[in-house]
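Hypothesis: this fold can be encoded by more than one sequence.
Test: take the structure tokens below, design a sequence, compare later.
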């Protein structure tokens, strides 16, 4: 098997750090995730010092945070990041269309429904024939934690 295609079967994310992955003997998706965490920590210091609310407005801060977050997601998950963006877009539309009293229910139902469909299709339709990067597990836990915090 070609070494390039072997790397592509390990992750859907970026393959730039594959030499580090091979050297450490750690899967490439985990190396990508750790490097994003380390870069995110460094970016947080920069964000706090250079983009403080006293220096720049909220639009600039939101734009930089959105760009960095999108870059990290695409770097780690590659084309799987499409699921994160689709889910975010769906919840954003619901946020603007639903009433204040029911928006939390609609977003939870939409998010859990989308993640359930993704998980079921990955297990039963593809039978884990595609890469099994688990984007639905951590997002589901995050939603559960968020709504349990809001509810109580």
């Amino acid at each position: 098997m070609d070494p390039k295609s072997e790397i592509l079967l390990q992750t859907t994310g970026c393959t730039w750090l594959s030499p580090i992955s091979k050297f450490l003997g750690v899967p490439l998706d985990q190396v990508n995730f750790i490097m994003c965490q380390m870069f995110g920590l460094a970016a947080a210091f920069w964000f706090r010092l250079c983009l403080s609310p006293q220096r720049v407005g909220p639009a600039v801060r939101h734009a930089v945070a959105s760009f960095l977050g999108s870059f990290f997601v695409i770097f780690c998950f590659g084309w799987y990041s499409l699921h994160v963006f689709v889910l975010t877009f769906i919840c954003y539309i619901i946020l603007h269309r639903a009433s204040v009293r029911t928006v939390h229910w609609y977003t939870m139902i939409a998010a859990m429904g989308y993640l359930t469909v993704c998980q079921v299709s990955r297990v039963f339709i593809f039978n884990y024939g595609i890469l099994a990067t688990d984007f639905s597990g951590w997002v589901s836990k995050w939603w559960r934690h968020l709504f349990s915090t809001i509810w109580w």
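The chain has a mean pLDDT of 80. The chain is about 75% helix and 0% strand.
Hypothesis status: open.
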